[in-house]
TrEMBL record:
The keyword Repeat does not apply. SUPFAM superfamilies: Integrin alpha N-terminal domain. This is ATP/GTP-binding protein. InterPro entries: FG-GAP, Integrin_alpha_N, TAT_signal.
Amino acid sequence: MRKTTRRLLASLTGVLAGGLLAAALPAQTAQASSWMDRCPSGYFCGFTGTAGDGSMFKTNKSMATLGTWDNKIRSFTNKSSEIACLYSDANYSLNGPDSTYWSQGPGGAGSYSSSLDRKISSVKMVRTERECTGRAYPWWYADPATKAAGFGDLDGNRRPDLLVRDLVGRLWFLPGDVLSTDGAGRLVGSGWNAMTAMTRHGDFTGDGREDLVARDRDGRLWLYPGNGAGAFGARKNIGTGGWNGMSVLTAAGDLSGDGKADLVARDTAGKLWLYPGRGNGTLGARKLVGGGWQVMNRLVGSGDLNGDGKADLVARDTAGKLWLYPGRNNGTLGARALVGGGWQDMQHLLAVGSYDGGSTNDLLAVTNERYAGGQPGRLLGYRGTGTAPTVLKGAEMIDSGWWKLNGVY
């Protein structure tokens, strides 16, 4: 269980609401300019005075102990490109009865708070705020499925795996077999914020391995072939341009019934299109599925949810209702059925087969700030029943650490 902590992204204009920290002391313009000028670019600086005056401490790297500067810093500024995590204990520890931390974002604004005054004993420089209290990625575990779902498993052990993109664009592989990896994820690569859409479900290349599809800012579509070990080979361009005309993209599994993974996309006019996979890393001529889909803001290729052996599609409308569109194995969809309401409280929806070791496909969701009166970052699991009309059981919380991510896949 994560220790409750306090976070600060402070500036001279104020501090976090809720009374955790005292209001920042006003600083004269000359004083603010002074401490900004004193601290060199690329550094976090602390001062013995309350307004950037007095002696100055500076660092551009993490420091587990501050030596003679322990509990001496009264005001500070961060002119680095990273987040400075400021701890009340040495060694970035949060294990003491009164341990706490604050995070100071980059940008150079000078800050003072009585709650921080002479209470800083270690400083950690990180890329994302998550790393102040742990890893850059959340915890994930899945039981081995009784049979391969045909999607969700990136490393071939019948456990569904996840991909998460952090706020600075790093893509992380989270293996379902957390017990053998000590919960450790693996960095796939950086620069993924260049992608405006990402999706995965099934094998597009015909080699039996799960692949990833992504669209860049220029509207080009890229296929990243899975290597069967939680990483990807050299990307291949499968759409030279024009994909920015699609507001929603999702890898949908085999909707056409030919045993090959397909892609579904909704254009800005609300038309839903099926792009049939050819099993060789390319897409065939698109086929119109239907119109009126502009009321849907999430699409998920769920696999077979109703137990008829055919891949289905799940969609959430703007009112927060979740709908099941049963597949017919010919590239068309049957009459929709309501799964339930209240799904507007979910930031991410994803399907990765069975996470509980069963033979039915399940659904996962990550909550947003509207959930339960303000509880974002909860990973919820919805076990599949494998039968209609109730295709999903009620929510169960898997983990509460899925906050401040830029995508879950």
